[in-house]
Amino acid sequence: MQRIFDILLSASALALLSPFLILLVLLLRFTGEGKVFFRQKRIGKDGTPFNLYKFATMLENSPNIGTGTVTIKDDPRILPMGAMLRRTKINELPQLLNILLGDMSLIGPRPQTKRCFDAFPPALQTVIVKVRPGLSGLGAVVFRGEEDILPGEPDKLCIYDQVIAPYKGQIEAWYVEHATLDTYFAIISVTIWMVLFPGSDLVWRVFAHLPEPPDELKSALHYPPTAPARVAG
Q1: What are phi and psi of 103, to 5 degrees?
Q2: Separation of alpha carbons 7 and 76, rounded Å
Q3: Per the count of CB atoms within 10 A, which of 8, 37, 57, 208 is most buried?
């Protein structure tokens, strides 16, 4: 049933947004490096790699520069229009094509590069790949401001591997284990709200039983200080 909604909603979105997307394609073609789309291998359902599509927001050789596939705030590799596209998540819209092709769902764990997927604990990896990755999802909503977490850290990749990735893996695995149509539509609603109000703590109120984040992430993830104690993991 979720696949039917994926096809109907993604096709409708592409049709509705087509004038805006055409304009954006023209703007990208004549700015930055002149590249419109960015294609990258990501880990999909059952661990099968697929080509994920985005609008180009960074230098073409970005995966081989600096922090590689981990992006930080004010990343010098970001192109002139890139910051706005990334902040609003407009750069993700080409993944509507991935949804129609069957690589992705509207809602699911965010598809990771192999380097970032391998940072998840192995036990969680086996859970996460049971479903199609999503254009949005609990991990994407909870970690909407992920790029803002790393700038002040002296060892950014170490913090990502030891703190961010393990907790993100818990969130994605929680979704897989609680995936229903009610959850699907609730995450769509929360995603729209968070785009409009990125500092909101709505996700913690709607999904009250999510694993509690580690102390060092609570502020960055807008975790409510008055939230009841939760079971970690």
Answers
A1: -75, -30
A2: 36
A3: 57
Cβ–Cβ contacts within 10 Å for residue 188, how many? 16
Q: 21: which residues sit within 8 A by CB, 6+ positions away?
A: 14, 93
Backbone angles phi, psi at 27, to 5 degrees: -60, -45
Both tokens assigned to 72: 């930080």
Q: Can you state the angle between helices 2-29 and 181-196, rounded to 10 degrees?
A: 30
**Sequence ranges of the domains in the chain:** 2-218
- What is the pairing mode between strands 105-107 and 134-136? parallel
Per-residue pLDDT of the chain (233 residues; tens, 9 = 90+): 899 999 999 999 999 999 999 998 998 888 766 788 889 999 999 999 999 999 988 776 565 555 555 655 556 677 777 778 888 889 999 999 999 999 999 999 999 999 999 999 999 999 999 999 999 999 999 998 777 776 555 577 888 899 999 999 999 999 999 999 999 999 999 999 998 898 899 999 999 999 999 998 998 899 998 655 554 44
Question: For 32, left (φ over 0), alpha (ψ -120 to 50), or beta?
Answer: left
